[in-house]
Amino acid sequence: MTSDNPQPPAPLAARRRRRRRANGPRWRQIGVRFSTEEAELIWAAAQQRGLAVGAWMGEVLAQECAGETLRPSTWQEILDHLLAFRRDVVRARTNIDQLAKVVESSGQDDHWVRQLAEVTDRILGRNDDMANYVATQLGQQRSP
After folding, report:
1. What is the dihedral of CA 142, 53, 30, 41, to 10 degrees?
2. Full residue range of the structural domain in which residue 98 is found
3. Do 78 and 134 form a contact (C-beta atoms < 8 A)?
4. Which of 75, 95, 98, 131 lies 20 to 30 Å from 69, alpha-carbon distance?
5. In angstroms, rounded to a whole number, what is the distance separating the alpha carbons of residues 102 and 40?
6. pLDDT at position 95 over 90
7. Residues 79, 42 within the same domain
8. pTM strictly above 0.70
9. Three-state SS string across 70-138, please?
10. Are the beta carbons of 57 and 42 closer than 8 angstroms?
11. How far apart are CA 64 and CA 67, in angstroms?
């Protein structure tokens, strides 16, 4: 999004959804202005949640004003993303293993494939460390 084009790209607009209605229709509006950088951050956050910008802003502000904490859902969202990322990296590691077999059987030097596998393994290790930390934080917030 730029200041010349304040609308999101078409694919984003097609995927946006409204948030659930609270206690009936919402008729009141509040106008707000943002810098270009702030607006881009807001668009990205709304896109990540799969909501229209107005729906996302309304959800966040309504929760904050109602005194509902956003932190547990934030930790849960982080954990969900880390676990999804892990699945993707494991798939990539499987492809690297298959590539290594092809390269080895061709008699070619496979040092670059081994290096790629090592880097992928380190990424998995760091991702697991982060997921364990987030899970610990999430567990602490859920305990009485």
Report:
1. 80
2. 71-142
3. yes
4. 131
5. 44
6. yes
7. no
8. no
9. CHHHHHHHHHHHHHHHHHHHHHHHHHHHHHHHHHHHHCCCCHHHHHHHHHHHHHHHHHHHHHHHHHHHH
10. yes
11. 5
